[in-house]
Each structure stands twice: as C-alpha cells, then as structure tokens.
Write a structure and sequence with these properties.
The structure is a homodimer. Helix content of chain A is about 75%, strand content about 0%. The first copy, chain A, contains nine helices and no strands. In chain A, helix 2 packs across helix 5 (about 60-85) and helix 5 packs parallel to helix 7 (about 120-145). The first copy, chain A, is elongated, with a radius of gyration of 20 Å. The model of chain A is unreliable at about 1-10 (pLDDT under 50). Chain A binds a DNA duplex (30 and 30 nucleotides) through helix 2, helix 3 and helix 4.
DNA sequence: GACTATACGGAGTCATCACTCCACTTGGCA
DNA sequence: TGCCAAGTGGAGTGATGACTCCGTATAGTC
C-alpha cells in the first residue's frame, strides 16, 4: 500500500530492513514492559541502533506504537479466524477469550502509551475493529450452537474480556485466581445462568 | 497521628487549612480526569494557589496522590461497613460492586499516576487493604446467606471488580453495556451457576 | 494598630524526552 | 574494486514538568 502511493519505490537495503525488524521487536518488549513511560531511546538501545535510526523508520513515537499494535491485533485476528473452524463453538470462544486475556499485558501497556502519545490513528483503530469483528463471528457461532446465552452482545462480551485483560495486566493476577474469575464469567455466559428480571 | 509524632504542633493558620483542602479537591478532579499525564501546575491553577503552595503542603507529587487515594478508599470502606448492616446480603454485595465500579474511573487514573510516580507508600496500601477487608466481610456474609457460590474467594471477586472498573474507566462503557456485563458476572456468582469440572 | 511567625506566589533550576542535523559508513551495482 | 545513494550514529535542540528560592503578604496576637 505504501508503495502504491509513493510509486514503485526502490527496494530497501538489507541492513535497513533488518534494522526495522529489530526495532519493532525491541519496541514490543520495551513498551510491553514499561508502557507509557518507556522511552524511544531505550527501544534504540535494545535494538542495538542509534535513536536517529528509530526515527528514520518511524517518524514519530506514535507511529512506532501503532505499528506494534497493528501487528499484535493482526495476530489475534488470525487466531480468531482459525478458531472459527473449531468443532466446538462454545469452547472455541472461551479459548479465544483466554488467549486475548493472556496476550493482554503487553498490548494494553502499548495501547495506553499510544493514547498517551495522542496518536490513535486510523490504522490501529482498523486493526482493532478487524479483531472485534472476528471475535463477533465466534460469539454468534457459539450462540447459534446454544453454548452462550442469547441476550449477550459483542459490546458486553468485549467489556468482560477487556476487563479481565486489564485486571490481569495491572494487578499481576496469578494463574489460579484468573482461572477462577474466568470460570465465573464463563458460567455466567451460559444460557442456564440467564436471569430475567429488569 | 501526625501530631503525636512531631509533638502537639501549633495549629495551622486558617488560610493554610483551607488551601490544603482546595488543593486536595482540585487534585481529585485533575488527576481523576488526566491521570498520569496531569501536572501539578494544573492542580495549583485549579485550586487557585501557586505551585509553591502545593509543594509546601505535599512535598512530593506522590504524597499528594497518596492523600487523594487514601480519602477515596476510606469513603468506599465506610460505605462497605454501612452495607454490612443490610438485610439482604446478596443484594448488598452487588450494590457495593456497582458502587466501586462506578467510582473507579477517577480512582484508577490516580492509582496509575501513583504507580507511575513510583510512590506506592504504606499509607495508600493500607487504605486499600482496609477496603478489601471490608469487602471481604460483605462477600462472606453473602455466601453464608446462600446468595453467592461458595467456591469464590476474595481474590477472584476482586479481580472481577477491578476488571469491570478498568474496562469502564478506559473504554467509556455506556451504562447499558456495563449493566449487561455485570449481570453476566452476577449470574455467574450465583450458586446455581457453579460448574464442577476441573 | 504594630509585630512577626506563618504562609504565599512565581520566576528559576535541573532532568528527561521526543525529535533533528550532519558528518561518516556501507550495501549493492558496474 | 571503486562509486555513491541509502543508511547510520550521536551530539544537539526545544519543550515540559517536578521541585526550590526568596522576597512579599497576611493571620493572629498584644
């Protein structure tokens, strides 16, 4: 896409390409750990390049963050698509829930840093929407299979997922506690659990 | 307590006392809105005092944040104690859950800012523990009354609560979505919803 | 009303961080 | 092997924000 706008642009040099990859990897780590407070300089150090190089590849801290997020969302979206073929739709949804929550700590730190940097661009938003659409498909399938109560929509399912993600990301929940908390949610999502009062 | 350590310390001047209060109020607002990125200068402006005055009352940004948090936790703890007398223990627990989640947006921003400022001192931690103990009492009462499944402990209950708080704080959930998500959790907390597999 | 300890305001200091400039290096082609 | 466009590193730069210094104002007392 970038090429189609600026023309067929001469291919990058090999060192530039590998530096770009190293920077992205380092950024994953650094922003995943340090979140908003992590500095671009630390990314450069971890990637083994100068700061200028980071800024040449990603003109802005925001753009680097966006790229990292887009990659991460993309991976999860692919995973959701994969799970759409699963024979047990209810189980598939729960697996997805768990994977997103597990993946969350780093992602959240990065997303927060991005908000902080003021740069929630279209690209990140689009990647996030693609993921939520993929999750929506999983949710509907599970409902059609009768594994999930019908009065739950994507927004509240997402709220529950984001909630568990954030709870885990900040409070460092140990696995057992998180599992038990998720069981409560999963049980609550069951058709049998639905209560009917206003 | 402060007096007992430093001696009976001559009383503060009236203007100092009211400025201190104004600063705390302003800090509630400012940090509640802006979180980590809010500046002490903004607090001073909003309180109608100079920056030096803020720093005289609270020698460090951290200490100001701690004070704000302690107040907030204290208020919720009192509310929990109040609800402990409620005739319907299950309902009381849900009310507490909802109130904590509702109160959360500002509190979370402040807590995050505090972590960011690196100063989670004993005082803030203690206030937070007092709150969780008060919630624990509510939880046990509800379990004894048979309103809540027995296999749920304070940690996972807290995880669910913190999760909803954080989901709401960051994603700006509208009331209806939050209500539906909470219903899923409440239904899942019901004894009838408990599943028994490993 | 005068006096002074207490408290105040805001200009200044210092550190940090995103981002730039430019002299130097190097991949890739002839 | 030599050339040079493409790429690099790191010392700046400017903005921001926590915190300090000190001359001025005022609450509270006689």
């Amino acid at each position: 896409m970038r090429e189609s706008v600026t023309g067929p642009a001469r291919a990058q040099r090999a060192d530039a390409r590998s530096n770009r990859a190293a920077i992205l990897d380092a950024a994953q780590e650094v922003f995943g750990e340090g979140g908003e407070s992590a500095s671009t300089e630390e990314v450069a150090r971890r990637a083994g390049v100068g700061i200028a190089t980071v800024f040449r590849h990603f003109p802005t801290k925001s753009e680097l963050l966006v790229e990292v997020l887009v990659q991460r969302f993309g991976r999860l979206r692919d995973r959701a698509a994969e799970l759409t073929g699963d024979a047990n739709p209810g189980e598939a949804l729960f697996v997805m829930f768990t994977e997103i929550v597990t993946d969350a700590p780093g992602k959240i730190a990065i997303a927060d840093a991005l908000v902080d940097a003021g740069g929630v661009t279209g690209r990140a938003e689009q990647a996030s929407q693609e993921l939520s659409q993929a999750v929506d498909v999983l949710l509907r399938r599970a409902q059609q299979a009768g594994a999930i109560r019908a009065d739950v929509g994507l927004p509240e399912f997402y709220a529950l997922m984001v909630g568990m993600s954030r709870a885990g990301a900040h409070a460092q929940l140990d696995l057992e506690v998180r599992t038990r908390a998720q069981r409560v949610i999963f049980d609550g999502l069951t058709p049998a659990a639905a209560t009917e009062d206003a």
